[in-house]
């Protein structure tokens, strides 16, 4: 598996993932804030075809370019079955798999930040969306978020992965790209909270609405 990150504005991260031979690629969380050509050039460099456009959840802070990329390339848009968007070429739930060339992407249910969040497990790497960020987690106070569900995702799903699993989040506001499950379990302050404290902390956490909130939700729910 090969992984190439893209940084866009306001700390949003997207990723190109290909199998080792470059037979097929997936783009995870592509954003309109990067030109389509930026993604397409990297795909062309590293893989024979773009198979999937995968949304880890319905983003509230940027507009997805998955529909435009699908129209250009014929790649299939993959979203959780509960995602509000009607454009789902492949609707998935936790436990399912996608074949990427000779390799497999496993879908993990990662609800909590939203009720339709997924993570993707691929050959020692996990794309965590906004469920697990480096040193933090996504908020749970809109988009049918649920603090108890996020606790379960952190401890029963992501926290159970092998220590050395590399974590690729959907955001980082300090220019970082990757961490590991072991480092997050050890240093992420939200991991250190017990269930009751985690729920109380998250339920009381109401950061300002993201820039582009309404525009993003409207566009990404089509
Ligand atoms: Fe999010």
Structural summary, described in words:
This protein has 222 residues and is of the alpha/beta class. The mean pLDDT is 96. Helix content is 25%, strand content 25%. The longest helix has 12 residues, at 147-158. The two termini are 31 Å apart. The protein has six helices and twelve strands. The strands form two sheets. It has a six-stranded mixed β-sheet with strand order 1-2-3-4-5-6, covered by helices on one side. Strands 7-8-9-10-11-12 form a six-stranded mixed β-sheet. A hairpin with a 2-residue loop joins strand 7 (97-100) and strand 8. The chain has a single domain (2-207), classed as Ribonuclease Z/Hydroxyacylglutathione hydrolase-like (Metallo-beta-lactamase, Chain A), CATH 3.60.15.10. Fe (ii) ion binds next to loops. Fe (ii) ion (FE2) binds next to loops.
Which helices and strands appear, and what pairs or packs with what?
Blueprint (H helix, E strand, L loop, with lengths): L1 E6 L5 E6 L6 E4 L7 H11 L3 E5 L11 H8 L2 E5 L9 E3 L4 E4 L2 E7 L8 E5 L2 E5 L17 H12 L7 E4 L9 E2 H7 L7 H9 L9 H8 L2
This protein binds fe (ii) ion.
Largest sheet: 6 strands, mixed
- Strand count: 12
CATH topology: Metallo-beta-lactamase, Chain A
Structural class: alpha/beta
Overall number of domains:
1
Number of helices, counting only DSSP H or I runs of 4 residues or more? 6
Ions and ligands? fe (ii) ion
Strand order of the largest sheet: 1-2-3-4-5-6
Distance between the termini: 31 Å
CATH class: Alpha Beta
CATH architecture: 4-Layer Sandwich
The 3D shape can be described as globular
